[in-house]
Amino acid sequence: MKNQSKKKIESLITQSLEKILEKNIELILDTKLDSYLGKKLGFSSDKNLEKVFEKKLGETIGQHNEHAAKEWLNVQETCDYIGISYKSLQKLIDQGLKGNSIGRSKRFSKTEINHFLKNVQA
């Protein structure tokens, strides 16, 4: 009887320790990740990390909204907008994608890009 009670107690202790370890491992991993990201971004305090992350996220969203509102795109913005390389953009130009040149600068209209891609895919 004592053996069964002892095994039962050991089992309960083991289960409890496993649960404690599981929760602490998640906390440790989260802390390590925050610390790693903080060092990569140049901040040591976890409180600062949250502020930096929010700022970077806001900047990224702002840049995305800026590009979304822009009708005329330069070559790099056009490549980013379509999700292609410069070489692939040259192929689209050869196939008839129209752009406007101002001196050595080339601009593409989002409306024209969308219309061209829709007709090419059709």
Give an account of the 3D structure.
By secondary structure, this protein is mostly helical. The protein is 76% helix and 8% strand. The protein is built from 5 helices and 3 strands, in the order ααβααββα. A 3-stranded antiparallel β-sheet has the order 1-3-2. It starts with a helix and ends with a helix. The relative contact order is 0.07.
Walk me through the topology.
Layout: H1 2-41, H2 46-69, E1 72-73, H3 75-82, H4 86-94, E2 100-102, E3 105-109, H5 110-121
Helix pairs in contact: 1-2
Provide a brief overview of the structure.
The protein has 122 residues and is mainly alpha-helical. The chain is built from 5 helices and 3 strands, in the order H-H-E-H-H-E-E-H. The chain has a 3-stranded antiparallel β-sheet.
Query: Can you list the strand order of the major beta sheet?
Result: 1-3-2
Distance between the termini: 80 Å
- What is the N-to-C succession of helices and strands? HHEHHEEH
The assigned structural class equals mainly alpha
Number of helices: 5
Contiguous low-pLDDT stretches (5 residues minimum) are none
How many distinct beta strands?
3
Rg over C-alpha atoms, rounded to the nearest angstrom: 28 Å
Average pLDDT figure: 76
Q: Mind summarizing the main beta sheet? A: 3 strands, antiparallel
